[in-house]
Amino acid sequence: MANTSKYAFEEKVVIAAVRRACALTSSVFEKLIKNETLVKGDKSPVTVGDFAAQALISTILHNTFPNDPIVGEEDASDLRIESGKLMRERIVELANDALTAPLAAGDNVAWGIGPGAHRTSDEILEAIDRGNHPGGPNGRMWTIDPIDGTKGFLRGEQYAVCVSLIVDATVQVGVIGCPNLLVDPSDPSKGTGAIFSAVRGAGARQFTLEGTDPVSLSIPKTEVEGLKFLESVEAAHSSHSFNDRVTEVLGVQAAHVRMDSQAKYAALCRGEGGAYLRMPTVVGYKEKIWDHAPGEVLVVEAGGIVTDSRGELLNFGVGRTLGENFGVIAAGRDVHPKVIAGVQQVQAEEKSKI
Ligand SMILES: Nc1ncnc2c1ncn2[C@@H]1O[C@H](COP(=O)(O)O)[C@@H](OP(=O)(O)O)[C@H]1O
Ligand SMILES: [Mg+2]
Ligand SMILES: [Mg+2]
Ligand SMILES: [Mg+2]
């Protein structure tokens, strides 16, 4: 199915950017050494791969859509100080290797890539910091999560390169690159690596890691008892015990599937799980828009629904976070109301214990 939608060009550019970023992050994983990882203020890890991939994607977006603001996860402040010098040099090298790699079919030098697209250190830091937009309800803006699931990336498990275009608080384009995800879960011999992409109103598709051979995605129908829950590997990111109780309440039989990153949204769209449950573990944690925007449009276009635990749509127009949304629940259209009912029953039980 060719995408002839209003945002077909944006999708094409983002798939090209994510393809380059996946090659970059995979090569970083092969070579990652100890002093190439930092711990951020919130205690979460960030690697040279996160910074370099954000610089790469931000550069491509800025060259192609110079007036569009960017909401990116990372900022370069730790790289501008003396102690960040080694990491900075490595990031500049990695970003330039990715930017100047040969053009693939469909690529365009006007996007700021290809031999000759070399950038200075200052330009790379500036590209990272261009992701500092505060978000909000109006106009176009991009989100970049250069490596979603950094903890999974460091374990050699799942992670995802995630980019979205939000227009007036609605996600219009979402692209998720998953270098470590099986191409075909029913045939591991086909190897790993896929890019998932959706444009609102134009469907959800899986591509090869080269960005070719699209296959339409649609969430298979299941009865609620036949659901398989997808959840984070990290118990600090979403409550495993809450999900265990929802399983009991709904009479779900299958064991949960634990997976890092927005690969969970992609897996849901391929029928590898029936619902993605993400209930908070810490009071006051606000989910980040870049952790959910691409996944939201992918699931909706594959025939699903994404809401918070109250059944309200995620609000991508209140800033860099999802603000007052509480938890995230994604599932096929037919089972989503039943999953929300189960979630709310468990929430009521928890409240009655306080
Ligand atoms: N206490 C917390 N609760 C929920 N999400 C959290 C969290 N701390 C970090 N995260 C987010 O969880 C994301 C990973 O999700 P998952 O557990 O599904 O792999 C992280 O993305 P990054 O890895 O891009 O920083 C981070 O934004
Ligand atoms: Mg992070
Ligand atoms: Mg993330
Ligand atoms: Mg990240």
Count of alpha/pi helices: 10
Structural domain count: 2
Write the CATH homologous superfamily of the largest domain.
Answer: Fructose-1,6-Bisphosphatase, subunit A, domain 1
Strand percent estimate: 15-25%
CATH topology of the largest domain: Fructose-1,6-Bisphosphatase, Chain A, domain 1
CATH class of the largest domain: Alpha Beta
- Give the number of DSSP strands: 14
Cα distance, first to last residue? 52 Å
The mean pLDDT is 96
Bound small molecules, deduplicated: adenosine-3'-5'-diphosphate, magnesium ion
Sheet of most strands: 7 strands, mixed
The CATH architecture of the largest domain can be named as 2-Layer Sandwich
Shape: globular
Strand order of the largest sheet: 3-4-5-6-7-8-9
EC number: 3.1.3.7
Protein name: 3'(2'),5'-bisphosphate nucleotidase
Catalytic activity: 3'-phosphoadenylyl sulfate + H2O = adenosine 5'-phosphosulfate + phosphate; adenosine 2',5'-bisphosphate + H2O = AMP + phosphate; adenosine 3',5'-bisphosphate + H2O = AMP + phosphate
Keywords: Hydrolase, Magnesium, Metal-binding
Topology (elements, then pairings):
Layout: H1 8-31, E1 37-39, E2 45-47, H2 48-64, E3 70-72, H3 77-80, H4 85-100, H5 121-129, E4 140-148, H6 150-155, E5 160-167, E6 170-182, E7 192-199, E8 203-208, E9 215-216, E10 229-231, H7 240-250, E11 257-258, H8 263-269, E12 275-278, H9 293-301, E13 304-307, E14 328-332, H10 336-353
Parallel strand pairs: 3-4, 10-11, 10-12
Antiparallel strand pairs: 1-2, 4-5, 5-6, 6-7, 7-8, 8-9, 12-14, 13-14
Helix pairs in contact: 1-2, 1-4, 2-4, 2-5, 7-10, 8-9
